[in-house]
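Hi X.,

You mentioned you wanted examples for the new student's onboarding notes, showing what a folding record looks like when two proteins sit in one file. Here is a clean example. The first protein comes first, with its sequence line followed by its structure tokens.
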Amino acid sequence: MRPGVRKRSYWQRRMWQHLVLALVSGALTTVIFYALPSRDPIFRLSMASAYVGLALLCMSLVIGPWHVLRHRPNPVSTDLRRDIGIWAGLLGLAHVIVGLQVHMRGKFWLYFLSSPDQPHVIPLRYNAFGIANYTGLGSTLILLLLLGLSNDRSLRALGTRRWKALQRWNYAGFALVVVHGVAYQLIEKRQLLFVGLFSVLGLLVVLLQLAGFRAMWTRTRRAPVAD
């Protein structure tokens, strides 16, 4: 196949991939939005974008271990995993923008600082609400880093080892998302359905990651040692 045809075929496949991810993301967001009993559209959009983004994030994190467990090649980066991660990032950013309007209605600084009319020793929120928001802020910063890495130019510029070292921050981002989600589950006393969905997604990632790590470790130990 000629280089020009191969390149055009590559971008056509990527465009179709993004189109499918956009349609699936939009459909799931719409379903969750209308399934929520709340009358507040901002809260419903915040929840819908959060859970769809979480599902995509979890999917991007289990592709690697799934390949390892099936004894399939697991390259440093694949287009599918990268594109799913991009849409997880876009939904995550949408959740942040919308979520900052839910409780304080635009006064986003009150998610992190105590209100001036409330007694406090230090201005930072250090209760469960503050922890939820600071972990959300941390995961957002990591999300921006990962979105910046999600292209071939960054991979070529940084090199495989450095790019992969930065990309591994997605595990820290996932941990912060879990803490953020658990805190809000407790603060808002979420419905059992959403608590269960959150728990299943989180456990799925943890179990598959552990299984993939164990498989890689076992495979490395059994590999013959060169003389």
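Then the second protein repeats the pattern, sequence line and then tokens:
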Amino acid sequence: MKKVLILTCLMCGLMATSSTLNAQIKTPAPSPMITIETAIGLTDVMIEYSRPSVKGRTIFAADGLTPFGKMWRTGANASTKISFSSDVKINGQTLPKGKYALYSKPGKAEWEMIFYKNTTHWGTPREWKAEDEALRFTARPQALPMMIETFTILPGNNKVNSADISIMWEKTMVSFTVETDVETPVLASIEKAMAGTSRGDYYTAARYYYDNGKDLSKAHGWVKKANEIDAKFWQLRLQSLIEAKMGDKKSAIATAKRSIEAAQAAGNEDYVRMNNKSITEWGGTAVDAMKSSKSK
């Protein structure tokens, strides 16, 4: 009896395994997913959507697969999503940067387009929330001279600061324009470049060279430039360390004293202690170090 029970359990296990293996058969997706990444101006744009095909059906009509006046996910499966890395304007209306679900309500003469904040829905939301609408606008459909078998969303007509995003399926196309602010970031980067290397850049380069045993003369030149722009106690500290490592203890002690004064003004006693210790190590007496720390 026990053997029969064990055999039965083994057979059930084999049947379950066989069923699992059969469930792993893969077939082509009827509406394959696609992700498009592009840039409009200096703004990164990502479009994620599934692509159904016409397959001989009527799509945009009162009684079509996508009826006029009915909310549509603008694709298949999960809602179509569009994200922008910076604020944009859609057909002249401001849309904050972020990721949105793109819903639409097709019509014969006009489409309603909605950017929706909640991107988690499979298809259209069961409960539509007005507060989740980030932007709603209208766009005019255009008749295409050829059949677009598979649903397509593509950016095009690119200009320096704008591009059109076109939705095409069957013999219909509807587009909207995305505008980005190019001038503000470009002018800011030009001004920064024309102003030359920043104090922080000089310090960072010098710090890297010092920490990694590279050319000390270059590191010294860079940290001196940083302190000429705006002397900071941590920058002066680095300059003194480089000078000491280069064998110029006299300059190192003088620079360390400047670092102490700046650290005291900033209320940073740690740097006061570190500099005093270094001054002593570099040949300054304890009295000299104390005098330096009380120079203010």
